[in-house]
Amino acid sequence: MKIITCTTPLLEQNMYIVEEGKHCIVIDPYYDEKTAVLLEGKIVDLLLVTHEHYDHISGVNKFKELYGCKLLSNSKCDNNLQRPAKNFSKYFEAYYEFQADLQKPDFAFDSNYSCSADELFNDSITFRWQHNTVFIKMVPGHSEGGNFIFLNENILFSGDILLDESVPAAKFPGGSPKEFTDVALPYINTLPPELVVYPGHGESFSLHEYYGYINKKEK
């Protein structure tokens, strides 16, 4: 198995391509010419998203069109995927305008972007893929439809719920500092420290490193 990290121009978001031979799962899809090269000769079995925000979903429709793949997501996330005001595509241009330190991509955003899941689950789902076990669980805090995506119990794709040495942005619409503290963090604390985390932005890290950061913050 191979995991390819693609850092995209949209807020330096990470798309992940999980390869097993010619087969792959794409997490938080973004599409451009570089993506096309990486996927040449590959079979895209499935799309997954860590949450519903535009920088993490902008390639969903293009992937479906080109590769005939389906998107699996939880029902809350799916509801927001279909609404530009909820997936933030409606406000993406304005967000860049108010963030002077961000380098704006040299292409137009789709301010009316929407997509939808083809298969739904409620709180969690487990399935087998190419001899691997995938477990997805809803985890609130950063957004209403946030997911933790586990691969073989030792890899976690965390989206923006877990970022290296950073408390997630929970004050956006749909986010909740209280849910992060009361629901997400207690769940995170049950996970094994050797878990390797692939976040929505930034470099991968071990959960042990995140625990060290949180403990340092609490002192």
Summary of the model, kept short:
The protein is an alpha/beta fold.
Radius of gyration: 16 Å
Largest sheet: 6 strands, mixed
Mean pLDDT: 92
The low-confidence parts are none
Helix run count: 8
**Architecture in CATH?**
4-Layer Sandwich
Question: What spatial order of strands do you see in the largest sheet?
Answer: 1-2-3-4-5-6
CATH superfamily: Ribonuclease Z/Hydroxyacylglutathione hydrolase-like
Class derived from helix and strand content? alpha/beta
Q: List SSEs in N-to-C order.
A: EEEHEHHEHHHEEEEEHEEH
Shape: globular
Q: Under the CATH scheme, which class?
A: Alpha Beta
Give the DSSP E fraction (strand runs of 2 or more residues): 25-35%
Number of domains: 1
Say how many strands there are: 12
Describe the structure.
The chain has 219 residues and is of the alpha/beta class. It has a single domain (2-218), classed as Ribonuclease Z/Hydroxyacylglutathione hydrolase-like (Metallo-beta-lactamase, Chain A, 4-Layer Sandwich). The chain contains eight helices and twelve strands. Strands 1-2-3-4-5-6 form a six-stranded mixed sheet. Strands 7-8-9-10-11-12 form a six-stranded mixed sheet. The longest helix is centred in the last third of the chain and has 12 residues, at 177-188. The radius of gyration is 16 Å and the shape is globular. It starts with a strand and ends with a helix. The relative contact order is 0.14. The model has no long low-confidence stretch (mean pLDDT 92).
